[in-house]
Write a structure and sequence with these properties.
Distance between the termini: 55 Å
Strand order of the largest sheet: 9-10-11-12-7-6-13
Number of helices: 2
Number of domains: 2
CATH topology of the largest domain: Metal Binding Protein, Guanine Nucleotide Exchange Factor, Chain A
Shape: globular
Structural class: mainly beta
Radius of gyration: 19 Å
Strand content: 25-35%
CATH class of the largest domain: Mainly Beta
Number of strands: 13
CATH architecture of the largest domain: Beta Complex
Length: 192
């Protein structure tokens, strides 16, 4: 069956006369299809065309309910496990794992209207899905060129730089760090 694109980037299935925009079906999951309730045939067409669109996307991710989806067209340049009490409470876990990406490389694919913000300090916002409460990223206002995505929301495998633990001095007393990554009691001092 031939695939046809119009000027707006819509993918058409002649047999079922349905379409979806590439921007909403760019997610690469095995059981996820576009938001227009396509049948199997048009879902295949959407995936085929989207795989061409995705060649330049390095990282994709989503919240648990898949309402919020994002893409990063660059690399993770900072990789850390944060043990501060705020990150532990926001995630309900022993620590949070963050990946720093350039703000200009980050874009939401869908669900931006479902995002909520929790200002956990004067300089930091936690951004999460209002439907499933998954934390998607943190915006440290002092770092205007960076955002920190939660690596638990990333689809598939991703390359990360050498990691480290921060605020290891305030880690949960019941958790033991057993890897050989560098540990910092507070914020790490990065060489300039």
């Amino acid at each position: 069956m031939p695939t046809r694109l119009d000027a707006a980037g819509n993918v058409y299935s002649a047999e079922f006369r349905r379409c979806c925009k590439i921007s909403v079906c760019a997610y690469r999951g095995p059981d996820v299809h576009c938001n227009r309730d396509c049948n199997d045939t048009s879902r295949f067409i959407c995936r085929h065309v989207c795989s061409l669109y995705e060649e330049n996307i390095v990282i994709t991710g989503r919240c648990e309910c898949a309402t919020v989806k994002y893409q990063v067209s660059g690399d993770i340049v900072d990789f850390c496990h944060c043990h501060c009490s705020i990150c532990r409470r926001i995630h309900g876990a022993a620590f949070a794992t963050w990946g720093g990406v350039a703000r200009d490389d980050f874009a939401f694919i869908s669900g931006e209207d479902k995002l909520r913000t929790y200002a956990f300090s004067e300089r930091s916002d936690s951004i999460f899905c209002s439907t499933c409460s998954s934390t998607v990223l943190v915006d440290f206002k002092a770092e205007a060129d960076m955002l920190y995505i939660t690596l638990g929301t990333v689809d598939g495998d991703v390359e990360c730089p050498d990691g480290y633990h921060q605020f290891a001095g305030s880690k949960a007393p019941w958790y033991e760090i057993t890897d050989d990554l560098p540990q910092h009691d507070g914020w790490p001092v990065h060489p300039k």
